[in-house]
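User: Predict structure, ligand guanosine-5'-triphosphate.
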Amino acid sequence: MDYLCFRALCCKGPPPPRPEYDVVCIGLTGAGKTSLLSRLCSEGTDNVVPTTGFSIKAVPFQNAILNVKELGGADSIKKYWSRYYQGSQGVIFVLDSASSEEDLEVARTELHSALQHPQLCTLPFLILANHQDKPAARSLQEVRFHSAWNTGASPLRNTFV
Ligand SMILES: Nc1nc2c(ncn2[C@@H]2O[C@H](COP(=O)(O)OP(=O)(O)OP(=O)(O)O)[C@@H](O)[C@H]2O)c(=O)[nH]1
Ligand SMILES: [Mg+2]
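Assistant: Predicted complex:
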């Protein structure tokens, strides 16, 4: 018996529909986008492989469902990111906070480019500092301060790190 049938039999009827939002998830390859989304969907992360192209997952939260489109971060793919921004209602930028300064600089360039993109520049923007379990991980304060993540952000923007 599935959940809807169970609720109907218990005279509660189906649960109210949750609003759905389309979100785009970007970040350099290896930042952990697929791992993060798999965790949020209660899926295993043992067999995660680099995303070729894009993948979409419906991530359930208590009050909403986020249809998250992950765009692969390999060099051959990220040049096409902007073709997949249309229709997004929010942005998640995943960052490897334990990466080298050089990679962090590349990530910052991509982030600033996304922050200023006409199709993203007014959307809520979450910067997720991943790989926090690694000894080399920068703290959230370091990520915010040293990397000047907010440079170029619109004053209308809701940006969270
Ligand atoms: N230690 C550690 N490893 C992580 C973390 N997040 C992801 N990983 C590992 O990092 C590797 C890359 O993770 P993915 O989730 O494939 O990264 P991605 O951002 O989806 O990469 P692309 O799809 O190539 O853009 C995998 O081996 C993960 O297990 C984390 O927070 N800590
Ligand atoms: Mg991936």
